[in-house]
Amino acid sequence: MQYQSPDDMVMVAQLPTSDWRDEQWVLGYGLYVNTLAYAYLLLYGEYEPAGQLRKLMNRLEVLGEAKNAHQHEGLVVPSKPYYALCSYKIFNSDRFDLLGNSLAILTGIASPHRARKLVAWIEAECDAMRIRGELAVGLPPCLFPYILPQHADWRPRYERYNRPGEYHNGGVWPFVCGFYVAACVAQGE
User: Fold this and answer.
1) Maximum Cα–Cα distance for the chain, whole Å?
2) pLDDT, the chain, mean
3) What CA–CA distance (Å, rounded) separates 159 from 167?
4) What is the value of pTM for the model shown?
5) Number of domains in the chain
6) Which residues, in sequence order, are CB contacts of 11 under 8 Å at separation 6+?
7) Are 60 and 74 in contact (CB under 8 A)?
8) Residue-number span of the structural domain to which 173 is assigned
9) What burial letters (b/e) apply to 53-62, b meaning 16+ CB within 10 Å?
10) 68 — pLDDT class (breaks 50, 70, 90)
């Protein structure tokens, strides 16, 4: 995985649709893939690179087109308790990724304070989605807010394969919800 780091640091980059979401574009430094990288670095006793990766992931994401050359993209979303779906140079998505954020809690990337705020935020957002009629069940979707046709990150292919509230665009996945339940339990919920 070291060869998947464009800047030869420790954050891993990916191409669109190259993680478990075969219909969802995640470009550059994805949250999910980097939580996995953090976990395996810890498991293999690579504490220094793991610490560097945690530090990089917890940097504030700079939004907009202008980024300073000396500042590495982070995955923290300003004024939100969760980590962004992905970030890379001028590309970023601050959509909420349930699996990546659940793994951030379980691996310790998220501080205990951030993890508590994150779980409370997820529950409040899902309650609001149910009230608006956007969520029919008591489990959180894998991605939200949903990508709609008028959004910049909408792909024409989504009309057929990834409609709002379905599949990777906000579908409810049992295996993802399993990680969320584990993250809740880890927080004493």
Assistant:
1) 46
2) 89
3) 12
4) 0.90
5) 1
6) 5, 29, 34, 37, 53, 56, 57, 72, 73
7) yes
8) 2-186
9) bbebbbeebb
10) very low
